[in-house]
Amino acid sequence: MTEHIVVVGGGTGGTVLVNNLADRLAREIDAGDVRVTLVNDGPDHIYKPVWLYVPFDESEPEDGRRPLSQLVDDRIDLRIDRVVDLDTEAQRLRYESGASVGYDRLVLATGSTLAPDEIPGLETGGHDYYSEAGATALRDELISMTEGHLVLSVIGTPHMCPAAPLEFVFMADDWFRERGLREGIDITYTYPIQRVHGNPHIAEWARPLMDERDIDVETFFNAETVDPEAGTLTSMEGAELDYDLLVSIPPHRGIDLVEEAGLGDDGWVDVDKHTLEATAAENVYALGDTAATGVPNAGSVAHYQAGVVARRLASEVRGRPATATYDGKTLCFVETGMDAASFVEFDYENPPSPAPPSQKLHWSKLAYNESYWLTARGLL
Ligand SMILES: Cc1cc2nc3c(=O)[nH]c(=O)nc-3n(C[C@H](O)[C@H](O)[C@H](O)COP(=O)(O)OP(=O)(O)OC[C@H]3O[C@@H](n4cnc5c(N)ncnc54)[C@H](O)[C@@H]3O)c2cc1C
Q1: Are 303 and 376 in contact (CB under 8 A)?
Q2: Per the CB 3.0–4.6 Å rule, which of 151, 179, 272, 361 could disulfide with 243?
Q3: If we measure between CA atoms, which residue out of 215, 198, 206 comes closest to residue 154?
Q4: What is the mean pLDDT of residues 299-326?
Q5: Which DSSP symbol is given to 222?
């Protein structure tokens, strides 16, 4: 009997995983003992880190898009469809197109969903660079901004790439300075807890840099409403900020399907943080943003977790106990301006210690972004 592995989500985690499986289980797939299906709700693979550069006119949205068919190994069945129903008892899922399919092992790699509608006024009053359309619209606003107040508000956690809001204000500061406009532009950064980043070590490192650059900070600021007419953002704590340009990191959720299937709250799958197995169902793994491990929602995390899940699945298919585990490894380059970056690496046991910013690290980040397409193919 052919064992069917279904991977839902063809983003970073899902794509790296299936290419790893194609390599690892080549013999079993060729013999017809194993079939691997990747389901994604669109034909393209999206590399989201490119969006950070779009508002500053340093990248085009298309730089972050490639057809999945070009990235996924021929041994994988690629299905462009949306999974709309999941029954983990019967081990079946249903596609939007109507068909239903059984699985022996399931991996959810469905990423994050933006929920700007949770904040009244945000959809019309705010901009973002956490979507392709948002980053493109923000570019127009930023290019035409010559004076006024730019507010970047992080609204709720977890959100994708915890470093990206810091990167944005550091880059905006530098970009406006280079163009001789910074004196006429105030920049304010708001964060929901009592420091500028969720991780205390990164917060401690970033705060003095923000002070040096005259980036105003409002901590313990949980955005509640936006008034686009008046140009104001108010917080649950009772603060009010006037803005000329509001850039938000909108609230994030997982997908509804996860909650409907009883796998976790707010669309995030409850998992064992070492094995990445779902706690509420048999034969289900989750990885990347959708897996509630407590580590950042980052592509590097999805990449490392994909390697662990691939090794576990290969062991299980071969009837051996799965021993591979995820140690919380996270790696991230952090832009500190238009031509300098820092670097952090940490795991469940070892906290981050940001490297001194340098041009070399900035170029390393850009080089990684270019070579990402090899990573997605499983070649790096
Ligand atoms: C502006 C920005 C900058 C970033 N910079 C960095 C960075 O520098 N470094 C870093 O490590 N990370 C960065 N990230 C974060 C990184 O992009 C994400 O953490 C990463 O993409 C998560 O991978 P994933 O596989 O979990 O989800 P995704 O890559 O989001 O993929 C999920 C896929 O699942 C599909 N899907 C969802 N639901 C269904 C369904 N029901 N049926 C079928 N398909 C479905 C989606 O369409 C999508 O293709 C950044 C993110 C943003 C927004």
Answers
A1: no
A2: 151
A3: 198
A4: 98
A5: -
Whether 43 lines ligand 1, by a CB cut-off of 6 Å, is no
Q: Which two tokens stand for residue 313?
A: 């699945």
Ligand 1 neighbour 48 (Cβ under 6 A):
yes
Question: Does 64 contact ligand 1 (Cβ within 6 A)?
Answer: no
Phi, psi values for residue 177, rounded to 5°: -60, -50
> From the CB of residue 290, how many other CB atoms can be counted at a distance below 10 Å?
29
Residue-wise pLDDT tens digits, 217-264:
999 999 999 999 999 999 999 999 999 999 999 999 999 999 999 999
* Start-end of CATH 3.50.50.60 domains in the chain: 3-112+254-329, 116-252
What are the structure tokens assigned to 178, written together?
């280079």
Pairing status of strand 269-270 against strand 291-292? parallel
Residues above pLDDT 70, as percent of the chain: 100
Cα 24 to chain centroid, rounded: 26
Whether 7 contacts 285, CB under 8 Å? no
d(CA 237, CA 125): 20
Q: What is the CATH number of domain 3-112+254-329?
A: 3.50.50.60
- Averaged pLDDT of the chain: 97
